[in-house]
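Render this sequence as a predicted structure.
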Amino acid sequence: MLEIIVGLYSLYILMRLYIAFMQIGYINTEKRKDPVLMPAGKYMVAANYAVAKEKLGIIETFVDYLMFLWWVFSGFAWLSSLFHVNGSVESSVLFLYGFMAVNYIVGLPFSLYQTFKIDEAFGFNKMTLKMFVVDAFKSIGLFLVLGGAVFAVLSWIISSYEMWWFWGFVLMFAIAVAANLLMPFFMGLFNKFSPLEEGELKDAIVALMQKAGLKSDGIFVMDASKRDSRLNAFFGGLGKSKRVVLYDTLLDKLNKKELLAVLGHELGHFSHGDIWKNIALMGLLLFIAFYLFGHLPDSLFIQMGVSPYAGVQIAMLMLLLPLLSFVFTPFMSYVSRHNEYAADEYGSQMGGKENLVSALLKLITENKAFPKSHPLVIFFYHTHPPVLERLKELGYDAGNVIVGEENPEEPPLPGDGIFAYMDKK
C-alpha cells in the first residue's frame, strides 16, 4: 500500500512540476510579443514577477516531495518515538505539534524569500523583518491554542468512534464555516480596521448594498499598505448583514465609480449564492478526504513503522490532502470561473461596464498580474477567468487596450544560481 501512495504522490509532484515549467516557457515567450493591457515596461515586469514566483514554487515543490518521502519512510516513526505516542489525546496533540513545527521550519525560508526577495524586488513588500517576526509569533500563538484544541477534539473522536471519519468531517466542516464568520476577528489581530469616513462614498456603498438586498454591518478601511501594496476588498458574513472591508491601497488607486463597480462584482457573488456553493464544494472535498483517508489500512502505518494512533492518522490526512485537492481543483476552478463571469455581469449592471473594465485594468496593472497564462495553469489553478476573457465578455477588445504610463524599467529576476539556470531557453 505504501508503494501505491508514494507512486500516486510522485505522479502528483511530476504534474505540478510539468505545469510550472510549461507556465515559465509560455510567459517567457509571450512577454516578447506585443504587450496587451499594459505599457511594454510594466508588461515585462509583470511577466518577470510571474516567472520568479513559478521558479520559487518549483524549488518548494521539490522540497515538499523530499519531505513527503522522509515523513512516510522514517519521519513519522522518528516523531512517534520522540513523543512516545501511545494513543492518548495528549501524545497525539504533541505529535501533531511536532509534525507542524517541522513543516513550518522547512517552509519558512521560502516565505522569507518570497516576501523579502521577490516581493521586495518588485515593489510589493512593505513589511519589516520585525513585523514579519511579530506576525509569525501571533500566528504560532493562535495555532497553539486553536489548533491544539481542534487536534485534541479530533484525536478524541478518532479514539472513541468507529466511524470517526464521518464525525471528524462534521467537526472540520463546522470549523471551516465558523472560520468564515470569525475571519474579521482574526484579521484584527494583525491589521487595524478603521470605519470609513462619513460622506459620499460611504452613502454610495450603503445604497449599493441595499439595491442588492443586503444591509451594512459596517464599512471599514484596513491598513493593508503597511505590509503590501496590492489592491483588494472583501465582504464578511454569511447572512444578509455584511461587513465591508476596503484595503487602503484600493482607496488610493480607484475612483468612486470604479470602486462601486468592484463591490458590485462582489455583491454578485452573494446575490447568486456563490458563497454557499463554495462552502458546499469545500464540504464535498472534506467528506471525500475523510472517507478515503479514514479507510487507510493499518498495514500502511505498520509499513511506515508506526501504529495507527489518532495523531498519526491526522498527520497522514494532512500530508495526503494536497494530492486529493489537486485532483479536485480543476472542477472547483471551473465552477469558480463560471461564477466570476456571472459576477462580472452583475457588477457591470450595478456599477457600469466601463467602470468595471477600468477597475480591472487598474487592478492587474497595480498588482503586476501578467494577463496571460498557459492553458494548463488556467485549467488547474485559475479561480478567475483570464482578464482578457473577462474584458471580452464585458464587450471590450482587450487586445487593443493599453493603460497606464510607460515604465521602461525591467528589474532582473531575483536570485541567481538555479534561478538563472532555469531562465535559460
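Summary. The first helix runs from residue 2 to 30. The radius of gyration is 23 Å.
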